[in-house]
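note to self — DONT lose this again. spent like an hour looking for the file last time. sequence + predicted structure for the chain T wanted, 202 res
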Amino acid sequence: MNLAKEKALPLLFMDASHFVMGCDFLGSIYGKARRFVRTGSGRKRYNVLGAVNFMTKKLTTVTNNTYITSTQVCELLRRLAAEYADLPVYIVLDNASYQKCFLVRDLAKELGINLVYIPAYSPNLNLIERYWKFVKGKLRIQYYNSFDAFRSRIDAIVETADTKYKHDLDRLISENVQFFDDLLMQDKNSATHQTNSFIKAA
C-alpha cells in the first residue's frame, strides 16, 4: 500500500460478484397488511469479475451472463497488463480454484503480474469486497423491470464510481484493514474444557 501511494506500482484487489436479478435486490417495505409485489424470477444473473485500483478506485472488468472461470480471469489479466504496461502490477485475490490454477498463474508470470493470494477464509483482506457491497447498495434503491435495465444499471455504477463516488470509495477502500491478530487458537482439549465450563455454569 505504501508503494502504491508513492506511485511506485499499481495495487489492485480482484474478485467476482454475481448479481442475481429479483433475488438480492427486491427492496423492502414495512406494513401491517400483506402485499404481493411483482419481481423477476431470480434466474438471471450478471457476473462481473473486477480488479479495483487501490489508489484511483478505477475498476477494470470482464462480464458475462453465464459463469466466471479461469478463461475470464486470464482475459482480465491481459486487460490489466495492457492498461498498466511496463509497471510491476500487484493483484490481491482469494484462493478460488479458477484464480489459482496453473493456467492463471502461468499467464500472470508471462505478463509480469504478481499475484498475492490471501489466506483462506479472510475476505476482510480483499478490499474489493467493500466495493461490491457499495455497488449492491446503490442497486437496491429502485426496481428493475427488465434484465437489460438491471445489467445497464450495474455497468453505469461501476463505470462512473471512480469519479462520481470517489469520496465514498476513498473511505471504504483504504489502509484501514480489519485484522484479527489478537485471537487465540484453541486446541481440542481447551475447547472441550470451555464447553464443560459453560454447561456447569448453566
